[in-house]
TrEMBL record:
SUPFAM superfamilies hit by this protein: Adenine nucleotide alpha hydrolases-like, N-terminal nucleophile aminohydrolases (Ntn hydrolases)
Span of domain Glutamine amidotransferase type-2: 53-151
Listed name of the protein: Asparagine synthase (Glutamine-hydrolysing)
Pfam family, one: GATase_7
InterPro entries in the cross-refs: ASN_synthetase/amidase, GATase_2_dom, Ntn_hydrolases_N, Rossmann-like_a/b/a_fold
Length: 608
Protein backbone atom coordinates (compact mmCIF):
# COMPACT_ATOMS: atom_id res chain seq x y z
CA UNK A 1 0.00 0.00 0.00
CA UNK A 2 1.14 3.59 -0.49
CA UNK A 3 2.14 5.81 2.40
CA UNK A 4 4.31 6.39 5.44
CA UNK A 5 6.08 3.75 7.51
CA UNK A 6 8.25 4.25 10.58
CA UNK A 7 9.93 2.53 13.48
CA UNK A 8 11.78 3.14 16.69
CA UNK A 9 14.45 2.42 17.78
CA UNK A 10 16.16 3.33 14.54
CA UNK A 11 18.04 0.77 12.50
CA UNK A 12 20.74 1.49 9.96
CA UNK A 13 19.52 3.15 6.79
CA UNK A 14 20.16 0.20 4.48
CA UNK A 15 18.39 -2.29 6.76
CA UNK A 16 15.42 0.04 7.07
CA UNK A 17 15.33 0.62 3.32
CA UNK A 18 15.39 -3.14 2.80
CA UNK A 19 12.45 -3.57 5.19
CA UNK A 20 10.37 -1.28 2.94
CA UNK A 21 10.98 -3.33 -0.21
CA UNK A 22 8.07 -5.79 0.35
CA UNK A 23 5.75 -2.75 0.24
CA UNK A 24 6.94 -1.82 -3.27
CA UNK A 25 4.17 -3.59 -5.14
CA UNK A 26 4.80 -2.31 -8.68
CA UNK A 27 7.68 -0.87 -10.67
CA UNK A 28 6.07 2.59 -10.35
CA UNK A 29 6.53 2.54 -6.58
CA UNK A 30 9.60 3.99 -4.96
CA UNK A 31 10.81 3.36 -1.42
CA UNK A 32 12.51 6.33 0.20
CA UNK A 33 14.02 6.85 3.63
CA UNK A 34 12.83 10.38 4.40
CA UNK A 35 13.91 10.92 8.02
CA UNK A 36 16.53 9.38 10.28
CA UNK A 37 17.49 10.23 13.84
CA UNK A 38 19.10 8.47 16.75
CA UNK A 39 15.69 7.06 17.68
CA UNK A 40 13.57 6.87 14.53
CA UNK A 41 13.60 5.68 10.95
CA UNK A 42 10.80 6.93 8.69
CA UNK A 43 10.20 6.09 5.06
CA UNK A 44 7.61 6.27 2.31
CA UNK A 45 6.53 3.85 -0.39
CA UNK A 46 4.59 5.55 -3.17
CA UNK A 47 4.34 6.36 -6.85
CA UNK A 48 5.56 9.85 -7.84
CA UNK A 49 2.09 11.45 -8.09
CA UNK A 50 0.93 10.32 -4.64
CA UNK A 51 0.43 13.25 -2.21
CA UNK A 52 3.24 13.31 0.35
CA UNK A 53 4.53 16.66 1.59
CA UNK A 54 7.51 17.23 3.89
CA UNK A 55 8.28 20.51 5.67
CA UNK A 56 10.82 21.26 8.36
CA UNK A 57 12.61 23.99 10.26
CA UNK A 58 15.44 24.00 12.80
CA UNK A 59 13.21 22.49 15.50
CA UNK A 60 10.95 19.94 13.88
CA UNK A 61 10.23 17.79 10.85
CA UNK A 62 6.68 17.19 9.58
CA UNK A 63 5.39 14.84 6.91
CA UNK A 64 1.82 15.00 5.63
CA UNK A 65 0.38 12.10 3.69
CA UNK A 66 -2.86 12.89 1.87
CA UNK A 67 -4.62 16.19 1.31
CA UNK A 68 -5.81 19.09 3.42
CA UNK A 69 -8.25 20.97 1.21
CA UNK A 70 -8.82 24.69 0.84
CA UNK A 71 -5.29 25.88 1.76
CA UNK A 72 -2.65 27.35 -0.52
CA UNK A 73 0.80 25.78 -0.38
CA UNK A 74 2.57 28.49 1.59
CA UNK A 75 -0.15 28.79 4.22
CA UNK A 76 -0.38 25.01 4.54
CA UNK A 77 3.33 24.60 5.15
CA UNK A 78 3.28 27.18 7.95
CA UNK A 79 0.18 25.50 9.38
CA UNK A 80 1.77 22.06 9.33
CA UNK A 81 4.77 23.29 11.32
CA UNK A 82 2.47 24.89 13.88
CA UNK A 83 0.32 21.78 14.19
CA UNK A 84 3.45 19.64 14.41
CA UNK A 85 4.66 21.75 17.34
CA UNK A 86 1.36 21.19 19.17
CA UNK A 87 1.43 17.47 18.46
CA UNK A 88 4.94 17.19 19.92
CA UNK A 89 4.39 19.53 22.85
CA UNK A 90 5.22 17.93 26.18
CA UNK A 91 2.36 19.93 27.71
CA UNK A 92 -0.14 18.18 25.46
CA UNK A 93 -2.13 21.06 23.94
CA UNK A 94 -5.03 18.80 22.98
CA UNK A 95 -7.67 21.53 22.93
CA UNK A 96 -5.88 23.31 20.09
CA UNK A 97 -5.49 20.08 18.12
CA UNK A 98 -9.12 19.07 18.58
CA UNK A 99 -10.33 22.44 17.36
CA UNK A 100 -7.94 22.33 14.41
CA UNK A 101 -9.14 18.85 13.42
CA UNK A 102 -12.78 19.94 13.50
CA UNK A 103 -12.04 22.97 11.33
CA UNK A 104 -9.95 21.06 8.77
CA UNK A 105 -11.30 19.37 5.67
CA UNK A 106 -8.95 16.64 4.63
CA UNK A 107 -7.91 13.01 4.46
CA UNK A 108 -4.51 12.73 6.02
CA UNK A 109 -1.94 11.21 8.32
CA UNK A 110 0.54 13.66 9.86
CA UNK A 111 3.87 12.48 11.29
CA UNK A 112 6.04 14.94 13.23
CA UNK A 113 9.49 14.59 14.83
CA UNK A 114 11.18 16.89 17.33
CA UNK A 115 14.82 17.25 16.34
CA UNK A 116 16.05 18.00 19.86
CA UNK A 117 14.05 15.64 22.09
CA UNK A 118 13.50 12.98 19.37
CA UNK A 119 9.83 12.77 20.33
CA UNK A 120 7.71 11.38 17.50
CA UNK A 121 4.02 12.14 16.98
CA UNK A 122 1.24 10.85 14.72
CA UNK A 123 -2.07 12.60 14.09
CA UNK A 124 -4.87 11.50 11.78
CA UNK A 125 -8.08 13.17 10.62
CA UNK A 126 -11.31 12.79 12.64
CA UNK A 127 -12.58 9.95 10.45
CA UNK A 128 -9.26 8.10 9.94
CA UNK A 129 -9.71 8.25 6.20
CA UNK A 130 -6.23 6.76 5.65
CA UNK A 131 -6.09 3.43 7.54
CA UNK A 132 -2.95 3.24 9.68
CA UNK A 133 -1.64 0.47 11.94
CA UNK A 134 0.89 0.37 14.75
CA UNK A 135 2.61 -2.04 17.12
CA UNK A 136 4.43 -1.49 20.40
CA UNK A 137 5.71 -3.88 23.05
CA UNK A 138 7.63 -1.57 25.40
CA UNK A 139 10.79 -1.72 23.31
CA UNK A 140 9.82 -1.50 19.66
CA UNK A 141 7.30 0.80 18.00
CA UNK A 142 6.33 0.33 14.37
CA UNK A 143 3.67 2.14 12.39
CA UNK A 144 2.67 1.84 8.77
CA UNK A 145 -0.10 2.44 6.29
CA UNK A 146 0.28 -1.23 5.41
CA UNK A 147 -0.47 -3.96 7.91
CA UNK A 148 1.98 -6.31 6.19
CA UNK A 149 4.92 -4.21 7.43
CA UNK A 150 3.96 -5.00 11.02
CA UNK A 151 3.46 -8.66 10.17
CA UNK A 152 6.91 -8.79 8.55
CA UNK A 153 8.88 -6.71 11.05
CA UNK A 154 7.21 -6.90 14.48
CA UNK A 155 7.42 -9.85 16.90
CA UNK A 156 3.74 -10.66 16.27
CA UNK A 157 2.55 -13.97 17.69
CA UNK A 158 0.14 -15.28 15.11
CA UNK A 159 -3.49 -14.56 14.34
CA UNK A 160 -6.03 -13.24 16.81
CA UNK A 161 -8.88 -15.81 16.95
CA UNK A 162 -11.49 -13.19 17.85
CA UNK A 163 -10.25 -10.86 15.15
CA UNK A 164 -10.63 -13.73 12.65
CA UNK A 165 -14.11 -14.54 13.99
CA UNK A 166 -15.29 -10.93 13.72
CA UNK A 167 -13.83 -10.69 10.22
CA UNK A 168 -15.67 -13.83 9.12
CA UNK A 169 -18.88 -12.61 10.70
CA UNK A 170 -18.92 -9.00 9.49
CA UNK A 171 -16.09 -8.73 6.96
CA UNK A 172 -14.04 -6.64 9.41
CA UNK A 173 -12.76 -6.74 12.97
CA UNK A 174 -14.12 -4.26 15.53
CA UNK A 175 -12.47 -1.26 17.14
CA UNK A 176 -8.68 -1.32 16.99
CA UNK A 177 -8.59 -5.12 16.89
CA UNK A 178 -6.82 -6.64 13.88
CA UNK A 179 -6.49 -10.12 12.39
CA UNK A 180 -3.10 -10.59 14.06
CA UNK A 181 -2.04 -10.31 17.70
CA UNK A 182 -0.27 -7.11 18.72
CA UNK A 183 -1.28 -4.98 15.75
CA UNK A 184 -3.54 -2.01 16.44
CA UNK A 185 -5.58 0.23 14.19
CA UNK A 186 -5.06 3.96 14.76
CA UNK A 187 -8.54 5.13 15.70
CA UNK A 188 -10.07 8.29 14.15
CA UNK A 189 -9.00 11.69 15.45
CA UNK A 190 -6.13 10.27 17.48
CA UNK A 191 -2.73 11.57 18.58
CA UNK A 192 -0.03 8.97 19.14
CA UNK A 193 3.19 10.07 20.87
CA UNK A 194 6.40 8.06 21.09
CA UNK A 195 8.76 9.45 23.75
CA UNK A 196 12.20 7.76 23.59
CA UNK A 197 13.42 9.39 26.83
CA UNK A 198 10.58 7.85 28.85
CA UNK A 199 10.24 4.76 26.68
CA UNK A 200 6.51 5.48 26.54
CA UNK A 201 3.80 5.39 23.90
CA UNK A 202 0.77 7.57 24.59
CA UNK A 203 -2.47 7.40 22.60
CA UNK A 204 -4.97 10.23 23.01
CA UNK A 205 -8.43 10.32 21.45
CA UNK A 206 -8.97 13.95 20.46
CA UNK A 207 -12.44 13.59 19.01
CA UNK A 208 -15.18 10.97 18.76
CA UNK A 209 -18.56 11.55 17.16
CA UNK A 210 -21.61 11.12 19.39
CA UNK A 211 -24.69 10.42 17.29
CA UNK A 212 -27.08 10.57 20.23
CA UNK A 213 -28.84 13.95 20.08
CA UNK A 214 -29.03 15.53 16.61
CA UNK A 215 -28.44 19.26 16.94
CA UNK A 216 -30.67 20.21 14.00
CA UNK A 217 -33.86 18.29 14.73
CA UNK A 218 -35.67 21.58 15.39
CA UNK A 219 -34.91 22.77 11.84
CA UNK A 220 -37.13 21.96 8.89
CA UNK A 221 -36.13 19.37 6.32
CA UNK A 222 -36.03 22.10 3.68
CA UNK A 223 -33.59 24.19 5.70
CA UNK A 224 -31.40 21.22 6.54
CA UNK A 225 -31.27 20.19 2.89
CA UNK A 226 -30.31 23.74 1.84
CA UNK A 227 -27.54 23.85 4.46
CA UNK A 228 -26.26 20.49 3.25
CA UNK A 229 -26.27 21.61 -0.37
CA UNK A 230 -24.12 24.63 0.49
CA UNK A 231 -21.62 22.44 2.32
CA UNK A 232 -21.64 19.81 -0.40
CA UNK A 233 -20.89 22.33 -3.12
CA UNK A 234 -18.04 23.70 -1.02
CA UNK A 235 -16.67 20.17 -0.57
CA UNK A 236 -16.76 19.64 -4.34
CA UNK A 237 -15.00 22.97 -4.94
CA UNK A 238 -12.30 22.20 -2.42
CA UNK A 239 -11.55 18.78 -3.93
CA UNK A 240 -11.42 20.08 -7.47
CA UNK A 241 -8.18 20.72 -9.30
CA UNK A 242 -5.68 18.90 -7.06
CA UNK A 243 -4.71 16.42 -9.73
CA UNK A 244 -4.23 16.42 -13.49
CA UNK A 245 -7.99 15.87 -13.92
CA UNK A 246 -11.04 14.95 -11.85
CA UNK A 247 -12.72 11.69 -12.86
CA UNK A 248 -16.10 10.98 -11.27
CA UNK A 249 -16.97 7.34 -10.75
CA UNK A 250 -20.51 7.35 -12.12
CA UNK A 251 -23.13 4.67 -11.57
CA UNK A 252 -26.89 4.97 -11.59
CA UNK A 253 -27.11 5.33 -7.81
CA UNK A 254 -27.94 8.42 -5.80
CA UNK A 255 -24.49 8.95 -4.29
CA UNK A 256 -22.44 9.20 -7.48
CA UNK A 257 -25.10 11.30 -9.23
CA UNK A 258 -24.97 13.72 -6.29
CA UNK A 259 -21.24 14.17 -6.88
CA UNK A 260 -21.83 14.69 -10.59
CA UNK A 261 -24.56 17.23 -9.79
CA UNK A 262 -22.34 19.01 -7.25
CA UNK A 263 -19.48 19.43 -9.70
CA UNK A 264 -21.91 20.52 -12.43
CA UNK A 265 -23.64 23.05 -10.17
CA UNK A 266 -20.28 24.65 -9.38
CA UNK A 267 -19.09 24.61 -13.00
CA UNK A 268 -16.08 22.46 -12.12
CA UNK A 269 -14.16 20.68 -14.89
CA UNK A 270 -14.56 16.90 -14.76
CA UNK A 271 -15.08 13.73 -16.71
CA UNK A 272 -17.13 10.68 -15.75
CA UNK A 273 -16.33 6.97 -15.98
CA UNK A 274 -18.60 3.96 -15.65
CA UNK A 275 -17.61 0.34 -15.31
CA UNK A 276 -19.46 -2.11 -17.57
CA UNK A 277 -19.56 -5.83 -16.85
CA UNK A 278 -22.10 -8.57 -17.55
CA UNK A 279 -20.75 -10.39 -14.52
CA UNK A 280 -20.69 -7.63 -11.92
CA UNK A 281 -22.59 -4.47 -12.98
CA UNK A 282 -26.39 -4.41 -13.46
CA UNK A 283 -27.36 -3.14 -16.93
CA UNK A 284 -29.72 -0.56 -15.42
CA UNK A 285 -26.78 1.02 -13.60
CA UNK A 286 -24.97 1.68 -16.87
CA UNK A 287 -28.09 2.92 -18.67
CA UNK A 288 -28.88 5.46 -15.96
CA UNK A 289 -25.24 6.57 -15.79
CA UNK A 290 -25.40 7.35 -19.50
CA UNK A 291 -28.66 9.28 -19.02
CA UNK A 292 -27.03 11.29 -16.24
CA UNK A 293 -23.98 12.05 -18.39
CA UNK A 294 -26.24 13.17 -21.25
CA UNK A 295 -28.39 15.29 -18.94
CA UNK A 296 -25.39 17.13 -17.52
CA UNK A 297 -23.49 17.20 -20.82
CA UNK A 298 -20.36 15.69 -19.31
CA UNK A 299 -17.61 13.80 -21.10
CA UNK A 300 -18.37 10.19 -20.20
CA UNK A 301 -16.74 6.88 -21.02
CA UNK A 302 -17.62 3.24 -20.43
CA UNK A 303 -14.93 0.75 -19.47
CA UNK A 304 -15.53 -2.95 -20.10
CA UNK A 305 -14.37 -5.19 -17.25
CA UNK A 306 -14.22 -8.96 -17.16
CA UNK A 307 -13.72 -11.42 -14.31
CA UNK A 308 -10.54 -11.00 -12.22
CA UNK A 309 -7.68 -13.46 -12.36
CA UNK A 310 -5.59 -14.92 -9.59
CA UNK A 311 -3.07 -12.11 -9.90
CA UNK A 312 -5.79 -9.57 -9.08
CA UNK A 313 -6.89 -11.49 -6.01
CA UNK A 314 -3.27 -11.91 -4.94
CA UNK A 315 -2.71 -8.15 -5.26
CA UNK A 316 -5.66 -7.46 -2.94
CA UNK A 317 -4.33 -9.95 -0.40
CA UNK A 318 -0.79 -8.56 -0.46
CA UNK A 319 -1.84 -4.91 -0.18
CA UNK A 320 -4.90 -5.06 2.09
CA UNK A 321 -4.09 -8.25 4.03
CA UNK A 322 -7.62 -9.52 4.54
CA UNK A 323 -9.04 -6.10 5.46
CA UNK A 324 -11.30 -6.12 2.38
CA UNK A 325 -12.97 -8.96 0.53
CA UNK A 326 -11.94 -10.55 -2.74
CA UNK A 327 -15.31 -10.39 -4.46
CA UNK A 328 -14.66 -6.91 -5.85
CA UNK A 329 -11.21 -7.71 -7.26
CA UNK A 330 -12.61 -7.14 -10.76
CA UNK A 331 -12.46 -3.38 -10.09
CA UNK A 332 -8.66 -3.45 -10.45
CA UNK A 333 -9.00 -3.78 -14.23
CA UNK A 334 -11.23 -0.69 -14.24
CA UNK A 335 -8.57 1.22 -12.34
CA UNK A 336 -5.82 0.05 -14.69
CA UNK A 337 -7.82 1.31 -17.65
CA UNK A 338 -8.44 4.67 -15.99
CA UNK A 339 -4.78 5.13 -15.18
CA UNK A 340 -3.84 4.25 -18.75
CA UNK A 341 -6.50 6.58 -20.17
CA UNK A 342 -5.42 9.52 -18.01
CA UNK A 343 -2.44 9.09 -15.66
CA UNK A 344 -1.71 8.39 -12.00
CA UNK A 345 -2.09 12.10 -11.27
CA UNK A 346 -5.87 11.99 -11.68
CA UNK A 347 -8.24 12.50 -8.76
CA UNK A 348 -10.82 9.72 -8.59
CA UNK A 349 -13.99 11.20 -7.07
CA UNK A 350 -16.59 8.80 -5.71
CA UNK A 351 -19.94 8.89 -3.94
CA UNK A 352 -18.59 6.90 -1.00
CA UNK A 353 -20.18 8.02 2.24
CA UNK A 354 -23.49 9.07 0.75
CA UNK A 355 -24.96 5.88 2.14
CA UNK A 356 -23.84 6.91 5.64
CA UNK A 357 -24.47 10.66 5.71
CA UNK A 358 -27.96 11.05 4.24
CA UNK A 359 -30.10 7.92 4.81
CA UNK A 360 -31.65 6.93 8.13
CA UNK A 361 -29.16 4.54 9.74
CA UNK A 362 -31.20 3.76 12.84
CA UNK A 363 -32.62 0.22 13.22
CA UNK A 364 -35.79 -0.58 11.29
CA UNK A 365 -37.47 -1.77 14.50
CA UNK A 366 -37.36 -0.61 18.13
CA UNK A 367 -34.41 -1.95 20.14
CA UNK A 368 -34.74 -1.97 23.91
CA UNK A 369 -31.23 -2.78 25.15
CA UNK A 370 -27.70 -3.77 24.18
CA UNK A 371 -28.52 -7.47 24.12
CA UNK A 372 -31.21 -6.92 21.51
CA UNK A 373 -28.89 -4.59 19.64
CA UNK A 374 -26.18 -7.28 19.43
CA UNK A 375 -28.72 -9.69 17.94
CA UNK A 376 -29.85 -7.03 15.46
CA UNK A 377 -26.29 -6.13 14.44
CA UNK A 378 -25.41 -9.76 13.80
CA UNK A 379 -28.60 -10.45 11.87
CA UNK A 380 -28.32 -7.37 9.66
CA UNK A 381 -24.57 -7.26 9.06
CA UNK A 382 -23.23 -10.80 8.98
CA UNK A 383 -21.74 -12.62 5.98
CA UNK A 384 -21.83 -15.99 7.70
CA UNK A 385 -24.16 -16.98 10.51
CA UNK A 386 -22.89 -16.71 14.07
CA UNK A 387 -23.14 -20.48 14.43
CA UNK A 388 -21.11 -21.07 11.26
CA UNK A 389 -18.39 -18.69 12.44
CA UNK A 390 -18.30 -20.36 15.86
CA UNK A 391 -17.88 -23.80 14.30
CA UNK A 392 -15.19 -22.71 11.82
CA UNK A 393 -13.13 -20.75 14.39
CA UNK A 394 -13.67 -23.06 17.37
CA UNK A 395 -14.82 -20.14 19.52
CA UNK A 396 -18.15 -20.23 21.30
CA UNK A 397 -21.02 -18.26 19.82
CA UNK A 398 -21.49 -16.56 23.17
CA UNK A 399 -17.88 -15.34 23.32
CA UNK A 400 -18.26 -13.80 19.84
CA UNK A 401 -21.55 -12.14 20.86
CA UNK A 402 -19.82 -10.87 24.01
CA UNK A 403 -17.02 -9.31 21.96
CA UNK A 404 -19.64 -7.32 20.03
CA UNK A 405 -21.43 -6.30 23.22
CA UNK A 406 -18.15 -5.22 24.85
CA UNK A 407 -17.40 -3.03 21.85
CA UNK A 408 -20.84 -1.38 22.02
CA UNK A 409 -20.24 -0.47 25.66
CA UNK A 410 -17.33 1.73 24.60
CA UNK A 411 -19.52 3.97 22.45
CA UNK A 412 -20.46 7.43 23.79
CA UNK A 413 -24.16 7.09 22.91
CA UNK A 414 -26.64 5.78 25.47
CA UNK A 415 -29.66 4.68 23.41
CA UNK A 416 -29.46 1.55 21.20
CA UNK A 417 -30.63 3.30 18.00
CA UNK A 418 -27.79 5.83 18.17
CA UNK A 419 -25.29 3.10 19.07
CA UNK A 420 -26.29 1.30 15.88
CA UNK A 421 -25.51 4.44 13.88
CA UNK A 422 -22.12 4.55 15.63
CA UNK A 423 -21.53 0.91 14.70
CA UNK A 424 -22.27 1.53 11.01
CA UNK A 425 -19.99 4.59 10.86
CA UNK A 426 -17.07 3.55 13.07
CA UNK A 427 -17.00 -0.20 12.41
CA UNK A 428 -18.45 -0.85 8.94
CA UNK A 429 -17.40 2.58 7.63
CA UNK A 430 -13.97 3.15 9.19
CA UNK A 431 -12.82 -0.47 9.47
CA UNK A 432 -14.21 -1.84 6.22
CA UNK A 433 -15.39 0.69 3.64
CA UNK A 434 -12.43 3.03 4.15
CA UNK A 435 -10.13 0.05 3.52
CA UNK A 436 -11.91 -0.43 0.20
CA UNK A 437 -11.41 3.22 -0.72
CA UNK A 438 -7.75 2.87 0.23
CA UNK A 439 -7.43 0.12 -2.38
CA UNK A 440 -8.22 2.81 -4.98
CA UNK A 441 -5.18 4.82 -3.85
CA UNK A 442 -2.95 1.99 -4.99
CA UNK A 443 -3.55 3.53 -8.44
CA UNK A 444 -4.37 7.24 -7.85
CA UNK A 445 -5.75 9.61 -5.24
CA UNK A 446 -9.34 8.81 -4.25
CA UNK A 447 -11.70 11.14 -2.41
CA UNK A 448 -15.38 11.91 -1.85
CA UNK A 449 -17.21 15.12 -0.86
CA UNK A 450 -19.58 13.17 1.39
CA UNK A 451 -16.83 12.81 4.01
CA UNK A 452 -15.95 16.48 3.98
CA UNK A 453 -15.99 17.09 7.72
CA UNK A 454 -18.27 20.13 7.61
CA UNK A 455 -20.80 18.32 5.41
CA UNK A 456 -20.60 15.06 7.36
CA UNK A 457 -20.97 16.73 10.75
CA UNK A 458 -24.03 18.64 9.62
CA UNK A 459 -25.61 15.59 7.96
CA UNK A 460 -25.14 13.41 11.05
CA UNK A 461 -26.87 16.07 13.13
CA UNK A 462 -30.03 15.91 11.01
CA UNK A 463 -32.79 13.86 12.67
CA UNK A 464 -33.59 10.30 11.64
CA UNK A 465 -37.25 11.06 10.94
CA UNK A 466 -36.21 13.51 8.22
CA UNK A 467 -33.81 10.95 6.72
CA UNK A 468 -36.34 8.11 6.73
CA UNK A 469 -37.63 6.84 3.35
CA UNK A 470 -35.04 8.98 1.50
CA UNK A 471 -36.98 12.14 2.39
CA UNK A 472 -33.94 14.27 3.23
CA UNK A 473 -31.94 12.78 0.36
CA UNK A 474 -34.77 13.59 -2.07
CA UNK A 475 -35.00 17.17 -0.88
CA UNK A 476 -31.20 17.51 -0.97
CA UNK A 477 -31.06 16.31 -4.60
CA UNK A 478 -33.93 18.53 -5.70
CA UNK A 479 -32.17 21.53 -4.14
CA UNK A 480 -28.77 20.57 -5.56
CA UNK A 481 -29.83 19.83 -9.16
CA UNK A 482 -33.51 19.00 -9.89
CA UNK A 483 -32.52 17.01 -12.99
CA UNK A 484 -30.61 14.57 -10.80
CA UNK A 485 -33.79 13.82 -8.85
CA UNK A 486 -35.90 13.43 -12.00
CA UNK A 487 -33.95 10.41 -13.25
CA UNK A 488 -34.61 6.83 -12.19
CA UNK A 489 -33.30 5.44 -8.91
CA UNK A 490 -32.23 1.90 -9.94
CA UNK A 491 -33.12 0.37 -6.57
CA UNK A 492 -36.79 1.21 -7.14
CA UNK A 493 -37.01 1.68 -10.90
CA UNK A 494 -38.67 5.09 -10.59
CA UNK A 495 -37.46 8.73 -10.40
CA UNK A 496 -36.35 9.96 -6.99
CA UNK A 497 -38.65 12.98 -7.20
CA UNK A 498 -41.78 10.92 -7.96
CA UNK A 499 -44.62 9.96 -5.67
CA UNK A 500 -43.99 6.35 -6.68
CA UNK A 501 -40.50 6.61 -5.15
CA UNK A 502 -42.00 7.72 -1.84
CA UNK A 503 -44.40 4.76 -1.94
CA UNK A 504 -41.61 2.33 -2.84
CA UNK A 505 -39.37 3.67 -0.07
CA UNK A 506 -42.21 3.33 2.43
CA UNK A 507 -42.77 -0.27 1.33
CA UNK A 508 -39.04 -0.94 1.59
CA UNK A 509 -38.99 0.41 5.14
CA UNK A 510 -42.00 -1.72 6.04
CA UNK A 511 -40.43 -4.86 4.59
CA UNK A 512 -37.17 -4.24 6.46
CA UNK A 513 -39.04 -4.75 9.72
CA UNK A 514 -39.81 -8.31 8.63
CA UNK A 515 -36.56 -9.89 7.37
CA UNK A 516 -38.18 -13.15 6.22
CA UNK A 517 -40.58 -11.25 3.98
CA UNK A 518 -37.84 -8.94 2.69
CA UNK A 519 -35.67 -11.92 1.71
CA UNK A 520 -38.59 -13.44 -0.18
CA UNK A 521 -39.41 -10.25 -2.09
CA UNK A 522 -35.86 -9.03 -2.85
CA UNK A 523 -35.14 -11.40 -5.81
CA UNK A 524 -38.38 -10.31 -7.50
CA UNK A 525 -37.50 -6.61 -7.05
CA UNK A 526 -33.98 -7.19 -8.40
CA UNK A 527 -35.37 -8.94 -11.47
CA UNK A 528 -37.99 -6.28 -12.19
CA UNK A 529 -35.45 -3.45 -11.86
CA UNK A 530 -32.71 -5.21 -13.88
CA UNK A 531 -30.41 -5.40 -10.87
CA UNK A 532 -29.32 -8.99 -11.49
CA UNK A 533 -25.91 -9.81 -12.99
CA UNK A 534 -24.61 -13.03 -14.52
CA UNK A 535 -21.93 -13.62 -11.89
CA UNK A 536 -22.21 -16.94 -10.04
CA UNK A 537 -19.88 -18.75 -7.68
CA UNK A 538 -17.70 -21.15 -9.66
CA UNK A 539 -16.48 -24.56 -8.41
CA UNK A 540 -12.90 -23.50 -9.23
CA UNK A 541 -13.08 -20.90 -6.47
CA UNK A 542 -14.07 -23.56 -3.95
CA UNK A 543 -11.30 -25.81 -5.26
CA UNK A 544 -8.79 -23.01 -4.63
CA UNK A 545 -9.87 -22.78 -0.99
CA UNK A 546 -9.64 -26.56 -0.62
CA UNK A 547 -6.09 -26.46 -2.00
CA UNK A 548 -5.16 -23.75 0.51
CA UNK A 549 -6.44 -25.98 3.32
CA UNK A 550 -4.46 -28.98 2.06
CA UNK A 551 -1.19 -27.18 1.26
CA UNK A 552 -0.93 -24.62 4.08
CA UNK A 553 -0.70 -26.17 7.54
CA UNK A 554 -1.22 -22.76 9.13
CA UNK A 555 -4.86 -22.76 8.00
CA UNK A 556 -5.41 -25.71 10.33
CA UNK A 557 -3.75 -23.77 13.16
CA UNK A 558 -6.18 -20.85 12.75
CA UNK A 559 -9.43 -22.49 11.63
CA UNK A 560 -11.21 -25.77 12.31
CA UNK A 561 -10.57 -27.27 8.90
CA UNK A 562 -13.03 -30.17 9.27
CA UNK A 563 -15.80 -27.63 9.74
CA UNK A 564 -14.40 -25.55 6.91
CA UNK A 565 -14.48 -28.58 4.60
CA UNK A 566 -18.07 -29.31 5.59
CA UNK A 567 -19.00 -25.72 4.77
CA UNK A 568 -17.33 -25.98 1.37
CA UNK A 569 -18.99 -29.34 0.63
CA UNK A 570 -22.34 -27.55 0.82
CA UNK A 571 -21.22 -24.39 -1.00
CA UNK A 572 -24.24 -24.33 -3.41
CA UNK A 573 -26.40 -23.68 -0.33
CA UNK A 574 -24.40 -20.59 0.66
CA UNK A 575 -24.36 -17.08 -0.71
CA UNK A 576 -21.20 -16.41 -2.73
CA UNK A 577 -20.34 -13.44 -0.47
CA UNK A 578 -20.02 -15.78 2.50
CA UNK A 579 -17.74 -18.16 0.56
CA UNK A 580 -15.58 -15.24 -0.60
CA UNK A 581 -15.37 -13.94 2.95
CA UNK A 582 -13.82 -17.26 3.95
CA UNK A 583 -11.63 -17.11 0.85
CA UNK A 584 -10.12 -13.79 1.96
CA UNK A 585 -9.17 -15.21 5.37
CA UNK A 586 -7.70 -18.47 4.06
CA UNK A 587 -5.82 -16.51 1.39
CA UNK A 588 -4.14 -14.13 3.82
CA UNK A 589 -3.13 -17.03 6.08
CA UNK A 590 -1.72 -18.88 3.06
CA UNK A 591 0.09 -15.80 1.75
CA UNK A 592 1.80 -15.07 5.06
CA UNK A 593 2.88 -18.63 5.81
CA UNK A 594 3.64 -20.18 2.40
CA UNK A 595 6.74 -19.71 0.27
CA UNK A 596 4.40 -19.73 -2.72
CA UNK A 597 0.72 -19.20 -2.01
CA UNK A 598 -2.03 -20.94 -3.96
CA UNK A 599 -3.08 -17.64 -5.51
CA UNK A 600 0.51 -16.98 -6.61
CA UNK A 601 0.49 -20.35 -8.34
CA UNK A 602 -2.81 -19.53 -10.08
CA UNK A 603 -2.10 -16.03 -11.32
CA UNK A 604 -3.77 -16.67 -14.67
CA UNK A 605 -6.80 -18.54 -13.32
CA UNK A 606 -10.09 -16.70 -13.85
CA UNK A 607 -12.31 -16.15 -10.81
CA UNK A 608 -15.83 -15.49 -12.06
Amino acid sequence: MVGITGRTPAIDEQSFANSLEPLVHTDRYEADVVFESASHSIGTTAYPEYPIRIVENDDRWVCLEGHIYGRDDEALERELLTVGAHVLSADGDDEFLTQWLLETDGEFLLVAADKESDRLGLLNDPLARLPTYYFHDGETVLFSRELRYLINEAPIEGFDPMGIAQCLLFGYSLGDRMLVHGANRLRPGTKLIVDPERGAVTETALHRFDFGDPAFEDRSRTRNAAELVDRFKQACRQRSGYGTCDVISLSGGLDSRSVLAGYHAEGLPMTAATMVSDDFVPPSDVEIAQQLADEFDVNWRRYEVGPPNGSDLDRIIKTKNGQIGLLTSFILEFFRQLREEYDAGLTYVTGDGGDKALPDLTPAKPISDDSELVDYIIRENSFLSLEQVARITGLSAESIRRSVRDRLRMYPETDPASKYVHFLVYERGVNFLFEGEDRNRFFFWSTTPFYSLEFFRYAMNCPADQKARYDLYRTFLEELEPAAADLTHPDYGVPVSSTRHEIAAFADELLSRYPWLFDAVRPVVKSLNSLETESQLQPDTVDCIRTQIEQCEAVDDVLVTDELRRFLDSYPEHDRTSVYRLFAVTSVIDDIHSSQSVLESRCDAVFS
